[in-house]
């Protein structure tokens, strides 16, 4: 089902103690509140289990920011989807542009990661989006289409329905530049049309498509008001409870 979601991506920030403090402060801020959106926080791996036992996971879902493309075994330093699930997390961010750019994640590795996440009952938050040069050449549509076709359009309609999409123009991530509400709506509608072509109108209508890239308390409402923008994936502004709550309150 299509949902409104505000998801935080902490990236590589916060020690375990700082992360626990942030998560418990957010938990206290949201406790007993009836919200118009689901809330998820994407923490570093080592925080997952502690955060899961410190907060109400019915109110705040927990996401990892990556998972291995292998099931288990001799892959030193990797963390499997099954391990993530065992911490109490229910989501995993996959295909973030930082992982594609700095860690060489390809369409193929992401395809494997998505399948393993789904096999282990984790809902992928699958990120797509173009870099600045591609936007300047007006190639954003072909870029997101290739990213979807390369890693998630192989799925059954049922499995695709478990994925949350996040459109994140790379030129807007951490830069203070945001896609305008019109730019966001235009490409979100395009993404939904691709889902409709592939899986049919009902799956497309049920798909949750988040916007990410310098989303903050000041611009969230304008962005989320668009019919095809179902919430946000929030980096910098998810690291302060007041800022993150102000974005949640945009719904
Ligand atoms: P930002 O990051 O909100 O700091 O731009 C968003 C993201 O990378 O998910």
Task: Please tell me about this protein's structure.
- The protein is α/β, with parallel strands linked by helices and 251 residues long.
- The chain has one domain (5-248): TIM Barrel.
- The chain has twelve helices and eight strands.
- The chain has an eight-stranded parallel barrel, surrounded by six helices.
- The longest helix is centred in the last third of the chain and has 19 residues, at 181-199.
- The relative contact order is 0.15.
- The model has no long low-confidence stretch (mean pLDDT 97).
- 2-phosphoglycolic acid binds next to strand 8.
Helices and strands, with pairings:
Layout: E1 5-9, H1 16-30, E2 38-42, H2 48-54, E3 60-64, H3 81-87, E4 91-94, H4 97-102, H5 107-119, E5 123-128, H6 132-136, H7 140-151, H8 157-160, E6 164-167, H9 181-199, H10 201-206, E7 208-212, H11 220-224, E8 231-234, H12 241-248
Helix pairs in contact: 7-9
This protein binds 2-phosphoglycolic acid.
2-phosphoglycolic acid is lined by residues 9, 168, 173-174, 212-215, 233-237.
In short:
The protein is of the alpha/beta class. The protein contains 12 helices and 8 strands.
What number is the mean pLDDT? 97
Name the CATH class: Alpha Beta
- What is the topology, as strand order, of the major beta sheet? 1-2-3-4-5-6-7-8
Predict the CATH topology.
TIM Barrel
Give the key terms.
251 residues, alpha/beta, TIM Barrel, eight-stranded parallel barrel, 43% helix, 15% strand, binds 2-phosphoglycolic acid
